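Field reference: sequence -> structure
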Amino acid sequence: MKVSEALKIISGEVSGDPDIEFNRIAPIQTAQNGDLTFVSGKKYLKYLSTTNASIVILRPENKPSNPTYTIIFNDNPTESINKLLRVIYAEKPLQPYRSPTARVSEKSDISKNTFIGDNVIISDGVQIGDSVSIAANSFIGENVSIGEYTRIHPNVTIYKNTKIGRYVTIHAGAVIASDGFGYSGVDQHGNPHKVPQVGSVNIEDYVEIGANTTIDRGTLGDTEIGCGTKIDNLVQVAHNVRIGKRCLITAQVGIAGSTVIGDGVVIGGQAGFVDHIEIGEGTMIGAQSGISKSFPPGSFISGSPAKGHQKNLRQQAMVSKLEKLFEEVKKIKKKLE
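Structure field:
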């Protein structure tokens, strides 16, 4: 792509050759001749004098004195790069295909434009919309519905009765609608007695689910994932959890049963939730937080047990001073004795 073509996607002013082409987008530290790169913050300015990139996007105030490359001046280089990435590296719809090794029930209803990879199993009553792709070794259980333009990557397991919307992406190894962890009392042998999990999972449009993430079916009703929510790898969503719209949930989060998470909540990695609590919309949750109670909308919480972020920082500062305080108390005690 030429710089002049890139400027149809992003805004900016050019210093250098507007007809120069780039073959890829690369980090400024490792960019080579023919690459486009960018400066996202002050700590990367030092690379402006050493980069081998052919084109650099940067803010006007960061212009180097003697550049050896073409510059695109832009007030937000990071967002400009993101726009270019979305256009240049956009996933293209797969051509309609059905592998001869796939097992597709005659009692399913599947669009002719669907891509079905090797060893895929599609059960009775499945409904699949237009331009869906299902990669190799995936299993689609009975009465599952999948909306148009959804993309299912290899080795995904989707249990029966799951409802998946349009433009959903499910990455490799994810398991959708397996049994929730429900036990009550003991059986005749004294073992924990399993409660049948007869609900399902409802995933709305534009959701993305990361690799090896698990989402349990509801005990009676549905586990719900709201429109536009993005879930990272290795996340556990338990039965009857309701997650709102446009939430961001990063890796290794665990959400216990019947927890309700409002719209626009951001959850840092390895956070853990107890069951039956409610997190208000717009809340931000720090990494490794232990959430043991409900919080109102707009909260910013961290720590374990989770509390207001500023309070948590103050308490951490106090803990760091305990050793010094202990030594001072010892000295005072010695003098008193």
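Note: The helical segments are 3-6, 77-88, 309-320, 322-336.
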